[in-house]
TrEMBL record:
Gene3D superfamilies: Ribonuclease H-like superfamily/Ribonuclease H. Keywords: Exonuclease, Hydrolase, Nuclease, Nucleus. 3'-5' exonuclease degrading single-stranded small RNAs. The keyword Nucleus applies. InterPro entries: REX1-like_exo, REXO1/3/4-like, Ribonucl_H, RNaseH-like_sf, RNaseH_sf. Residues 89-250 form the Exonuclease domain. Belongs to the REXO1/REXO3 family. The keyword Cell inner membrane does not apply. It comes from Brassica campestris (Field mustard). Its main location: nucleus. This is Exonuclease domain-containing protein. GO terms for cellular component: nucleus. SUPFAM superfamilies: Ribonuclease H-like (SSF53098).
């Protein structure tokens, strides 16, 4: 087998940009495999979190990127010296995304903090295509914010390059979504959504950043129904990583009684088509649930242009149960035995859309 040093020396002879990028991708893949196979005696807490991220069953699919595309930035860390590769510097990043007219997600705001929680980046970004849904209830971003934005994705890549090329570990919650919209491929990652899980969670269910931060750090990132702030979310994922680094603990986290009770007062709406704007969803839900008060926490789709979902938060379990009964639709049970209804939404455009409304427990 060719040694890594020989491979790096060979890579440096390539001059064509596209050839060099392909070989950087290969060097980064080899680094990922090396990090996966390291023995426990070589672990630092940071390396343990990287390895736990990479050992998750969904890591390979979540972090498979079209990195060879011209507009992607590929970190060159796999070709650097062992000193740079061993760096335990960390930066946490979080992005806010909007829905564009072609069904893809567009980057509109980026926040990043360093290991000491110092803000190193907080910028608005102008997508290169028309926006059809600002998702303001989620993102906190308005059309006015974007009208004044001048930066592009490439500008943000250049801002982050100085940290990534120095060997910093990239930290985030469902970080693959942020890396995909940033069009950045970097092998040293800590994804708190893959590392940690709740003891009562189904195998495929990843913890929310808010719930995880409350369980591990003792406080909420935001109140239910309040829009996201990418700087706060980046700091929250860094806080979670730092808590583990300071004193490693079991990554299967026990939810509090308060969290378990809160599940009973929520409904989960899923498989919502991307062409249903989140603002319109609010109106439709108001019709479904009549005068009952609720808060809507919308979650973007896992893939660009894919279906998205939302959590509806009520003031009590009784209100949630009544709202579920009021939903018109065929009642069934999902694969885990939870009751749900298939409901059809009528849009003002004349289109119809179907989605599922499900109980959380």
């Amino acid at each position: 087998m060719v040694s890594r040093d020989l491979l790096v020396a060979f890579l440096t002879t390539f001059k064509k940009k596209e050839d060099l990028k392909a070989l950087q991708c290969r060097a980064n893949s080899l680094l990922v495999e090396k990090l996966k196979q390291e023995t426990p005696e070589n672990y630092t807490p940071e390396k343990m979190l990287i390895r736990l991220t990479m050992k998750h069953p969904e890591f390979s699919s979540d972090y498979s990127f079209p990195s060879l595309s011209n507009d992607w930035f590929v970190s060159d860390i796999g070709m650097k010296s062992s000193t740079v590769m061993k760096s335990t510097d960390m930066i946490a990043v979080d992005c806010e995304m909007v829905l564009c007219d072609d069904g893809t997600e567009g980057l509109v705001r980026v926040g990043a903090v360093d290991r000491h929680l110092k803000v190193i980046l907080d910028k608005y970004v102008k997508p290169g295509k028309p926006i059809v849904d600002y998702r303001t209830a989620i993102t906190g971003v308005t059309s006015l914010d974007i009208e004044n934005a001048t930066l592009s994705v490439a500008d943000i890549q250049r801002e982050l390059q100085q940290y990534l090329s120095d060997g910093s570990i990239l930290v985030g919650h469902s970080l693959n979504k942020d890396m995909r919209v940033l069009k950045i491929d970097h092998p040293k990652v800590i994804d708190t959504a893959l590392v940690f899980k709740f003891s009562n969670a189904r195998n495929s269910r990843k913890p929310s950043l808010n719930d995880l931060h409350k369980a591990i750090c003792g406080k909420e990132v935001r109140k239910e129904g309040v829009s996201h702030d990418c700087v706060h979310d980046a700091a929250a994922s860094m806080n979670i990583a730092l808590a583990f680094i300071k004193k490693p603990f079991d990554t299967t986290v026990t939810p509090s009684k308060e969290m378990l009770e809160a599940e009973k007062s929520r409904l989960f709406i899923h498989r919502i088509p991307s062409y249903v704007p989140s603002e319109k969803l609010n109106i439709v839900l108001a019709g479904e649930f009549h005068s009952t008060k609720f808060k809507l926490d919308v979650k973007p789709g896992k893939t660009q242009g894919g279906n998205y979902c939302a959590v509806v938060v009520f003031d009590s379990t009784k209100e949630a149960d009544q709202a579920f009964e009021n939903v018109n639709g065929y009642k069934e049970r999902d694969s885990f035995g939870l009751p749900q209804k298939l409901s059809t939404l009528k849009l003002s455009s004349g289109l119809s859309a179907s989605c599922y409304v499900r109980k959380m427990v």
